[in-house]
């Protein structure tokens, strides 16, 4: 089933749930406006007929707002989110290295050169995707 919702009910993190880039600086008004838009939208959308657990979706929305509004909670959340993202990217880099080496390394690169190239690509991706506003 394709998700054609105006605001996604499921997101990878609190920032995306509320429509922001991860780790960006959000002022209180922006955050509250994003929360209100989603809350009103989901309240109308979510019903027993479409089989979505309303309380779980709303709880996640409230937790996202509470966490991102509280400076200390946001710092802790950002640390955990960064760790999760770096771990995921590290796994992707390891898999890319393995695939390149198993494919016969048609480029004639050393393992260290391949690893450096992969790391540079991942760093570039991290800095462009997760840059603050």
Description:
By secondary structure, the chain is mainly alpha-helical. The protein folds into two domains: 1-69, Helix Hairpins (Orthogonal Bundle); 82-133. 67% of the residues lie in helices and 0% in strands. It is built from five helices and no strands. The chain has helices at residues 14-17, 28-45, 54-69, 71-102, 111-129. The two termini are 33 Å apart.
Fold topology:
Blueprint: H1 14-17, H2 28-45, H3 54-69, H4 71-102, H5 111-129
Structural class: mainly alpha
Query: What best-fitting shape do the alpha-carbon axes yield?
Result: elongated
Q: Can you count the helices?
A: 5
DSSP, total strands = 0
CATH class of the largest domain: Mainly Alpha
CATH topology of the largest domain: Helix Hairpins
Query: Mind telling me the C-alpha Rg?
Result: 19 Å
User: Main β-sheet, in a few words?
Assistant: none
How many structural domains?
Answer: 2
Strand content: under 5%
Q: What are the segments in which pLDDT stays under 50 over at least 5 consecutive residues?
A: none
In the CATH classification, which architecture of the largest domain applies? Orthogonal Bundle
The helix-strand sequence is HHHHH
Residue-averaged pLDDT:
79
Distance between the termini: 33 Å
- Estimate percent helicity: 55-70%
